[in-house]
Design a protein that fits this description.
Elements: H1 6-24, H2 45-61, H3 75-91, H4 98-140
Helix pairs in contact: 1-2, 2-3, 2-4, 3-4
């Protein structure tokens, strides 16, 4: 990351702040008139949000292609997206999530989903960290010269 251009650094910061707002507003970590929350925010929601935003911003910045770079596989994109969604579920209100309420009901949301939220938070951070690590390791590999789409044998 030391060799990142200023453009990549700006994408990392703006992306991280954007992800933080996109998660904090609908989960009512940031109090707005748009959303409400029936269950108080847990003590670990803010650190999870901060780590998720930082990892997501860095991950987004890896998609700003440096000169002479080859595209990488899409596996990290899927894993990063799943990590972001898990983070949203992890810090959200367990009884405000309509899908959880439909699947488990109010008592099930508090009995089963609320205790699972810290596990979702850990899973989201692990997945985002894995995707970022894969992207960064891929940048250090030697680039493959373009062969015009043909493989010579």
């Amino acid at each position: 990351m030391r060799s990142w251009t200023p453009r990549r650094l700006v994408v990392a910061v703006v992306g991280g702040v954007t992800i933080a707002v996109m998660i904090a507003v609908p989960t009512d970590l940031l109090d707005t008139p748009l959303f409400g929350r029936s269950v108080p925010v847990t003590w670990w929601a803010w650190p999870v949000l901060a780590v998720t935003a930082a990892l997501s911003g860095l991950l987004l910045a890896t998609y700003v292609r440096p000169a002479n770079a080859t595209p990488s596989p899409r596996t990290e994109q899927r894993v990063g997206a799943v990590g972001g969604v898990l983070s949203l579920l992890a810090v959200g209100c367990p009884v405000c999530n309509k899908l959880v309420l439909l699947a488990l009901g109010t008592s099930g949301a508090m009995t089963w989903f609320a205790p699972a939220q810290p596990l979702l938070a850990v899973a989201s951070i692990v997945l985002l960290g894995w995707a970022l690590r894969r992207r960064l390791l891929g940048e250090r590999q030697c680039p493959v010269p373009a062969s015009g789409g043909r493989v010579e044998r």
